[in-house]
């Protein structure tokens, strides 16, 4: 019988004999990885210290072509010659769909640039990113402050609310940051300029889309407005996709999860997207806004379906739907009818039948036995008289 040491040595010999196979497998795996790395970008080679390495949208041909078409369309004006044709074949509709996709890309690019600015400016003013959350406001403030350590010399009026300006000034007096080098400051200011340029391009794109909403989706624009209609179309991916979407999903387009900072969600508003920016929603009392949002989403879906088939280019159907929404909301706000005092019934002179029950049955039993006993007694007396006589 082999000992434990002998069996252990035998296992080691088997392992030494099989050492060549894992090496071959690793070599094949390494070859496969090498082949895959040729197609994948090398993340370590990216220079995140350079803005051009992380922000590339403005240099793409798609961005330049769409912006050039938008500028030409804004200068030329709206052409209604193809109003009766199929909507998907209209080149202006295709440009609007491209603009909606480009606006999403611009928002993502602004977020990337915002992260770049925060990483650079964190050495100078680390507390600023927690005080100013909006990327464009943050870029404007950083460009305005620059390398200045004394914020009393910097005028931030018009860039931020007065309360936030006071908090920023007080925080800057106690910050632990240090002035940036000339190279980092130049890169940071360049990134701020690029973010502001992208924001201006986004506004131009949205202005173009809003100006064409009266032609592309007249009925939807009549209900929610041109600005909200363009946002709904951009998020849904076009008018056709919006028309196929159920109303419960239209209600949530553009909704964002709110950060309540640990407070209770009991008093927070329900999740609602772009529809909260409509005039009808804002004029509705807060207690009825949940129902109003569902109603607006349902009517907006109907209007989008009418626009997708060019059912009513004049927008009259949308205006009728908007009037129905307003009438229903007004009906909801009406007070309930007053409760009138209920008059007493007219007295009835006829005697009513008395209600029977256990007591009445017992009483009838006693009366019946008494009457039967008297009759039986009288019968016995008369029979006795007859027999005796």
TrEMBL record:
Residues 216-334 form the Nop domain. GO terms for biological process: spliceosomal tri-snRNP complex assembly. Residues 1-44, 330-362 are annotated as: Disordered. The keyword Ribonucleoprotein applies. The keyword Cytoplasm does not apply. Its main location: nucleus. Residues 352-362 have a biased composition (Basic residues). InterPro entries: Nop_C, Nop_dom, Nop_dom_sf, NOSIC, Prp31, Prp31_C. One of its GO terms (molecular function) is RNA binding. It is found in: Nucleus. Residues 11-44 have a biased composition (Acidic residues). Belongs to the PRP31 family. Residues 334-348 have a biased composition (Pro residues). GO terms for cellular component: precatalytic spliceosome; U4 snRNP; U4/U6 x U5 tri-snRNP complex. It comes from the Eukaryota. Keywords: mRNA processing, mRNA splicing, Nucleus, Ribonucleoprotein, RNA-binding, Spliceosome. This is Nop domain-containing protein. Pfam families: Nop, Prp31_C.
